[in-house]
Every structure is written in C-alpha cells, then in structure tokens.
Design a protein that fits this description.
It catalyses: ATP + protein L-histidine = ADP + protein N-phospho-L-histidine. One of its GO terms (cellular component) is plasma membrane. Its EC number is 2.7.13.3. The protein is globular. The strands form 3 sheets. It has a 5-stranded mixed β-sheet with strand order 4-6-7-9-8, with helices on one face. Strands 1-2 form a two-stranded antiparallel sheet. The chain has a two-stranded antiparallel sheet with strand order 3-5. 23% of the residues are buried. The chain is an alpha+beta fold. It has 6 helices and 9 strands. 42% of the residues lie in helices and 21% in strands. It binds adenosine-5'-diphosphate (ADP). The site of adenosine-5'-diphosphate has 22 residues, from helix 4 and helix 6.
C-alpha cells in the first residue's frame, strides 16, 4: 500500500569493514521477526519431506527398483511424505485465506448443532485410526450464530481432530454446545495426555508444538490452532484451553449468538 516508510541510515565501521544498516522505523520489529520466523519454519517443514521423497525416488530408480517388496515399501513412504507436504500446503493456504478475509465480517446464519453433527460424521467416516466414541451433546433449542460456515467447519475439524489425535485410545471425545446468555459456548473435551501449563500461552503460535515428533507421527502440521485463533478472531469469539496433564484437555470457544428476531408486540388489553 501507499504506507509512508521512513528509513534511518546507520553507518558503523568495524576494522576495515564498513557496515551500513537500514532501519525501517515504521515497521513493527516484532511483527517482522515473526514473519521471518514463519517463512523459515514453513520452508524447513517443507524441505524435510521433500528431501526424503527425492532420496527414496533416487534409490528406487537405482537398485531398490528391482526388489518388489522394497519397491512397494519405498513407494509407500514417498506417498506418505507427499501427503504430509500436501497437508502443510493446505494449512498454509487456509491461514493466508483467513488472514486476507480478516476485515470482512462473516454474515451467514449458522445452526451450530447441525455443523457439529456434520463434522463429527465426516471425521468418523474418514477412518481416523483412533478408537473411542465421539459424543455430541447439543440441546435442540440452541440459538443460531452468525459466521462463516466453511471457517467454523474448519475450526471444528481442527479442535475435534486434535482431541482425537491426543486423546487416549478407548476414551471418548465429547463435543458440546450450550447457550450462555447471548452467546453459544462450544467445548471439545478429551481424556488424553493433557498439556503442561507452561505450554498453554504458546499453543496458537504457528508451528508451536509440545512434542514435535509426536505431532508429526500423528499427521499434525503445527498450524491447526493458529488457524483456529484466526477464525475465532474474525468471529469476535473467544477461545480458552484448560488442561490437566495426563488427564485431559478442554478447548472452549464462545461465539456471539445472532441477535434474536424482535419479540412480537404483545397486545395489552387493559380493562377499565
Ligand atoms: P498439530 O498439527 O501439531 O496438532 P496444533 O496447532 O493443532 O498442531 O496444536 C499445537 C500443539 O498443541 C500440538 O502439537 C500438541 O502438542 C498440542 N495440543 C493441541 N491440542 C491438544 C490436545 N487436545 N491434547 C494435548 N495436546 C494438544
């Protein structure tokens, strides 16, 4: 944009080397730092599976291609790594789309109960490897909310997906919604490993993971909660994470309800 940038020239001499630094004082240093870290992290996350794909492809082209068992095994790894890159690219695209939409107020009337049912059915149908029930507790008379359907669906996918990933096998995950004054409160609860308190404030940072190895094994990108945070902000909602290590985690999202239709005027009959 036509933002006014002011540059300050700082010259320093060190030995016979001359260093000239340009400071953009209008740029928020912390935001810039985050952007640089983000690009570095994203590149690194993409480079790892890519290196593995290239390595296995080359081995297949040479000796391993002759052994049918080895060939199958290596091709499966190539497929897994490519899917990991695909998930990452999809999440990066989601994040940038949501950020670009930041100033457009979401305006679709949404039946959250129905959306919860849809997302839970999808997650069960896509054959998540986890065993355990997925319980949905939604009252019939939940007020409608106003939002962006696709984004709220993604929010639910990410939160319920995490609860299924990090919940203990054989224990249920509970998705509930209830009215709270002029808001609707959505909660997703698992009985899993939980999160130590020192990690809680950083969970929504892009690529922040408590256990990176475990997240990768479970197919995580480290972007799920960052995406949720952006969706929550765009919906003027609030997200809280409560967790007890080795017991479980509850993520609560409070969304403003749609303003109810004006109550029909009551005809008062005054008898004199
Ligand atoms: P990921 O793709 O790694 O799951 P997220 O952004 O969704 O990324 O979550 C960030 C990190 O927060 C995860 O790597 C995990 O360590 C932790 N986390 C998120 N949800 C839960 C949960 N329900 N139980 C335990 N840990 C969780």
């Amino acid at each position: 944009g036509a933002r006014d940038r002011r540059w300050r020239l700082v010259a320093a001499t060190g030995g016979d080397m001359r260093v000239v630094t340009l400071h953009d004082r209008t740029e928020n240093a912390a935001a810039e730092r985050m952007r640089v870290d983000f690009v570095a992290n994203a590149s690194h996350e993409l480079r790892t599976p890519l290196a593995s794909i290239i390595g296995y492809a080359e081995t297949l082209a040479d000796e391993a291609g002759d052994d049918p068992d080895l060939r199958r095994r290596f091709l499966r790894i190539v497929g897994d790594e490519a899917r990991r890159m695909q998930r990452l690219v999809e999440d990066l695209l989601s994040l940038s789309r949501i950020e670009a939409d930041k100033f457009r107020v979401p305006d679709q009337p949404i039946d959250l109960g129905r959306l919860i049912d849809e997302v839970c059915a999808e997650l069960v149908a896509t054959g998540n490897p986890r065993s355990g029930d997925l319980d949905c507790v939604v009252p019939g008379e939940l007020p409608a909310i106003v939002g962006d359907r696709a984004q709220l669906s993604q929010l639910l996918h990410n939160l319920v997906g995490n609860a299924m990933k990090y919940g203990r096998a054989g224990t249920p995950v509970t998705v509930a919604a209830e009215r709270r004054g002029s808001a609707v409160r959505l909660t997703v609860t698992d009985r899993g490993e939980g999160i130590a308190p020192e990690h809680l404030p950083r969970l929504t940072e892009r690529f922040y993971r408590v256990d990176a190895g475990r997240s990768r094994t479970l197919g995580g990108t480290g972007l799920g909660l960052a995406i949720c945070k952006h969706i929550v902000e765009r919906h003027r909602a609030r997200m809280e994470v409560q967790s007890v290590p080795s017991t479980g985690t509850t993520v609560a999202v409070t969304l403003p309800a749609a303003s109810p239709p004006a109550a029909p005027a009551q005809a008062a009959v005054i008898k004199g």
